[in-house]
Amino acid sequence: MINGLGTFDYKNGEKKIEAEFYFDWSPKALSRRSLLQIEAVKNETNIFQENFMTLPNHSWELITKTKDNRQFIAQNLFLKSVSESEDKNGISYIFGCSSIEIGDRNEQFEYIEFYFPNVFIGFDEFEKKGSFNFLNKSNLTLEYNDTYTLTFSGLNETSIHEKKKEIISKGNDISTLKVIVQKASSNHIYFSEANKVIELVSDLMSFVYDGPVSWIHAIAYQHNEEVFNYFRDVKYPRLGTFRKLIRFEFPYILTSYISKAFTEYKSFSEEKQKAIRTFINGLHFSSERLVFPAPFTSLGSSIEDYIERSIPETESRYISKPVRKKMIDPSFELWVREHILPLLNEVDREDFSESNLKQKTNALLQRNLKSRIINLLHHHDIIFDQNWVTDFVKKRNDAAHGAYIHEKDDFLKWTRMAALLEKIILKQLNYTGEYIDWSESPPQQKSF
What we know:
Helix content: 25-40%
Structural class: alpha+beta
Low-confidence stretches: none
Number of helices: 12
Mean pLDDT: 90
Largest sheet: 6 strands, antiparallel, barrel
Oligomer: single chain
């Protein structure tokens, strides 16, 4: 239990709650039902004196010190409940939040541990527990402005097959993976640089996993003592994978993939990394609940967004923006002014303002979704059956316009499209090796 005195501040002092705060967290085990939560207790006896109904429910923050004089920062707090606390003798305010820092993140550390929930992987090296040896450790060396060593190890005996099955069957969200990051050449590492390396690795794992791979808790050490903690509320991958792209449950598969793909991925611009990350998140979201027609519309939206970010404009539109602005926009605006506006009332004319006209022109000159998807696949030299694109686009359009009719092969039409998109990501990472092709039923292991 961590506690202290602090001021919960709303928008630079518009409203304040001065109270004692309490934060309780177990770093080795967690539940989706126990999100980051802080309790503030104010020494009042009558809840109605507080007029709590006037308190805003979001945009709070807490920057203070703990009782043992460590810095405590809680960001993006939102008020969940207010009640009388019998055991703490006062008014209890329960806040949720997005992140909590305890200690100074700007210090230098010897090494930093990152904890991941619901991630099950294979390991390369044996560890001994009692009289039992089992694969539970992997090591990786990566270059990113410096040389870093990463040590992966399983938590809560999740690398033992029967234990893993038990956790998945019970549906308990739990920390399953720890990754230690340190520099190869010194005992000094900043949190910011370790976090950058681990975020790139997390992205690469997410691309081949069945959901977002994100750390929830980081612990930094000096002289083998905890000096800094960082907690954050992130989306968990679901327990048990459904659509993995490589067989990372076997030794050396995941570390080999990361070591090869890391070199390529780190060379991408931040904009390109974000585009791929957003694209994969959309694909994961589409596959979370395969209740059709929703997967068609959500995947279609992700494709459209990725096309905008990743291929030349002339492959997504008939005419480039400079040409459109010079030759099309002025004449189109004149035509609307002469032929359309006289037929409209004042309210409707607002839909044809200068900014709205540009949007309408842009939409008019945009290629249809089928054409854009085909150009996206050609752009990345992906071999494909054009009927797969036709089938997917028809289903997506029917779903978007209320004309969807369920058919028994809907999953196949969706998964074929998703499989083509997964090939785009693997190709961009310059991946070579075995992968799982989800366009076939049952899925087949192939070489890329």
